[in-house]
Structures are given as C-alpha cells and as structure tokens.
Design brief:
Number of domains: 2
Number of strands: 5
Structural class: alpha+beta
Oligomer: single chain
Radius of gyration: 18 Å
Order of helices and strands: HHEHEEEE
Strand content: 15-25%
Distance between the termini: 42 Å
Strand order of the largest sheet: 1-5-4-3-2
Largest sheet: 5 strands, antiparallel
Helix content: 25-40%
Number of helices: 3
Length: about 120
C-alpha cells in the first residue's frame, strides 16, 4: 500500500504521516475551526449587522480580485457597503487602512480602493 502526500486544508503545506485521516496541522485545525465559527456567526447576523455585511463584501471581492489591485469604489457601493463602519484603522505607507475583521481596504489618492487582509 502506498501513502499519498497529504496537504493541509488550511495552510496548503505537507502534513506529516503520523495519523491516517488528519486534514490539518494541529494549529491549523484550531485556526480553521475559529474561521468556521466566525463565518457562521457572521452568516446569522448578516442581515442585522452592517459590520458583518461589510466583512462579507470585502471577503468576496478580495477572493475575486486579490490584494494590491485597484478597484472602483462603486463595486462596494453597489452592494450597500457602508464606508463609515470599521473596527480598526491604521496608517501604513501614508494611507489609512480600515479593517472590519479579517478584511479591509485602503482608499488611494485617485479614489480607487485596494483590498487587504490582516
């Protein structure tokens, strides 16, 4: 019987073969469980809480466009994104980065938006 090299479902690095049906590294399993819990909570509160709606919009656009790509703010505005809400603000390279939970954005001087992830 040959063993296949298994890949962690969270960090995409190779798993050790000490356990046959392991899908994650121990630290990745906790991070994945935490992510699932956050997403489940967000899904429950999506309609009630604009904070989680903003997080969902940023996550979807981040996965569509990636990081360091300038996008038009109307893409966010068309989905009822509320630019007045953020959890964390920090100044990086002369620009303000606004974060909801894991995802955030920066508004450049040309009024384009760059998405980022913490």
């Amino acid at each position: 019987m040959t063993r296949q090299n298994k890949i962690c479902g969270f960090c995409n690095k190779q798993l050790d073969q000490t356990h046959g049906n392991r899908r994650y590294h121990p630290e990745c399993a906790y991070a994945k469980k935490k992510e699932r819990s956050i997403n489940q909570y967000a899904k429950q509160n999506l309609q009630l809480d604009p904070y989680w709606r903003n997080e969902k919009i940023l996550r979807e656009l981040y996965h569509s466009f990636g990081e360091m790509v300038e996008i038009d703010p109307s893409l966010l505005g068309n989905q009822q994104f509320d630019f007045t809400i953020c959890k964390t603000k920090r100044r990086v390279n002369g620009y303000w980065q606004m974060f909801m939970h894991n995802y955030g954005f920066t508004i450049k001087e040309n009024q384009k938006i760059i998405l980022c992830k913490q």
